[in-house]
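RETRY 2/3 - previous attempt timed out on the joint model. Re-submitting the same 346-residue input unchanged.
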Amino acid sequence: MIATKGYAAQNATTDPALWSFEHREPGPNDILIDIHFCGICHSDIHQARNEWGNALYPMVPGHEIVGTVARVGSAVTKFKVGDKAGVGCMVDSCRVCPSCKAGEEQYCDKGATVWTYNSKTDAGLTFGGYSDKIVLDESFALHIPDNLNLAATAPLLCAGITTYSPLRHFGAGEGKRIGIVGLGGLGHMALKFSHAFGAHTVQFTTSASKIEDAKKLGADEVILTKEAGWDANLGRTFDFVLDCVSAPHDITPYLGLLKRDAVYCSVGIPETPIQVAAFAVAMGRKHVTGSAIGGIKETQEMLDFCGKHNIVSDIEMTTFDKLSEAWVRVVKADVKYRFVLDTKSL
Ligand code: NAP
Ligand code: ZN
Ligand code: ZN
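RETRY 2/3 succeeded.
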């Protein structure tokens, strides 16, 4: 077994603290990764605090993992020792159902997606990237472009793919007017991608302090949504709106901004259901949908796109002893724009 050190939440009310555990010995198809950096995603907080009602403890959060390959199994072909490697939100799936075959393992029809942490398998619980090592099947590990700063690449493994995938799927690009709601970890990546795809991109934010940043990150327009009535005079002009907000909020004004037949997609997963006013979707035959991360093939495509266009996350480095402080700031929407844990601080 592989002795591993990490930070685990032992229940819903105590923040993660130092904990020792074991990963399996790498099998023929497995790689062992020495983790260098791990991003802090709001989903880590939702799950550790059991806001989604699915928490399994002890929980070692973290699914924005980058590091170097330290060991490879005898049948491994994609990686060699010393390669940079990344791990996102999943480490396995059934691999044979239509969704898995289509490269959408996150939507495995058998419900057999194994999440990087907080999943129960025959071998026990899975443990994530707030730790110094991870063992997984090479099929679910990603190659990291060499030209990108490694720490700033970590958030691409969740915030990156979660926004890249729906923007691609719903056709963000030249000639389209795209709205991004919430300028946090996901939101700032959505803004970068929408801009890079050539769309006219409008950032919606509740934080006046982020307006100038949003413009620098690629927004053609920034709209402050703090005061009621902010949506007056915007018309029905949007082709697609991507909601990246972590907390419950009223989506009705945004539905009013969509063109006829246009789509409102939430990647944000607040702890309470999204309320959809029937009138707001009926008038204009509008669609409300969601999207979860992206498959392994598309995640590699996103990383390669980032390598080619020099896209990484805007990060604030932090250390394990300051994890609780970082989580408080994430919940207050006070991070520009993603915290990344340095494994050396473990
Ligand atoms: P984050 O960094 O905390 O960003 C959330 C942003 O939402 C904040 O920066 C803030 O932006 C806005 N916001 C916060 N509270 C708000 C409120 N009460 N009303 C309106 N806006 C508010 O979170 P994240 O890591 O980007 O994650 C965002 C959400 O996506 C979380 O729910 C997370 O669990 C979910 N998620 C889903 C997937 C998926 O596969 N679907 C993957 C990863 C994460 P402004 O300051 O600009 O207003
Ligand atoms: Zn995440
Ligand atoms: Zn499947």
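The chain has two domains: 2-157+313-345, 160-290. Closing ticket.
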